Amino acid sequence: MKIGVLNKGDSVINVTSDFIAVQRQNGEVDLISLVNDNLGFRVDLENIVTIGYGQNIVEIVDGSGINIKTF
C-alpha cells in the first residue's frame, strides 16, 4: 500500500490508525483522516483539517462555497 499525500518539501510528523499529520513546506499542518473500509485504507479528502497561521479564528467552507468563521 502507498498513500501519496506528500508534496516536495513536506514531512510526516505523526501517523495513527485514524489520521496522518503532514507538515507542509509553508509550515501549516494538515490532519488527513484515514478511513478503513472493505477496500482497505483510503484518504478522506472531504475532511482534511488544516492548522495554519491566523488570529485564533476557525474557518469552514461548506460544499457550496460558503465560508463560516468563528471567533
Task: Characterise the protein shown here.
The protein is 0% helix and 48% strand. A hairpin with a 5-residue loop joins strand 2 (19-23) and strand 3. The protein contains no helices and 7 strands. The N and C termini lie far apart (40 Å). With 71 residues, it is mainly β. The strands form 2 sheets. Strands 1, 2, 3, 4 and 5 form a 5-stranded antiparallel β-sheet that branches. Strands 6-7 form a two-stranded antiparallel ribbon. The mean pLDDT is 88.
Instruction: Determine the oligomeric state from the structure.
Output: single chain
Measured as a percent range, the helix fraction is under 10%
Termini separation: 40 Å
Mean pLDDT: 88
**Major β-sheet profile:** 5 strands, antiparallel
Q: What is the tally of beta strands?
A: 7
What is the string of SSEs from the N terminus onward? EEEEEEE
Rg result = 14 Å
- Helix count, DSSP H or I runs of 4 or more residues: 0
- Strand fraction: over 45%
Structural class: mainly beta
What is the approximate shape? Answer: globular
Low-pLDDT sequence parts: none
Please tag this protein with its features:
71 residues; two-stranded antiparallel sheet; mainly beta; five-stranded antiparallel sheet
Provide the fold topology.
Layout: E1 11-15, E2 19-23, E3 29-37, E4 40-43, E5 49-51, E6 58-61, E7 67-70
Antiparallel strand pairs: 1-2, 2-3, 3-4, 3-5, 6-7
Give a concise summary.
By secondary structure, the protein is mostly beta strands. It is built from no helices and seven strands.
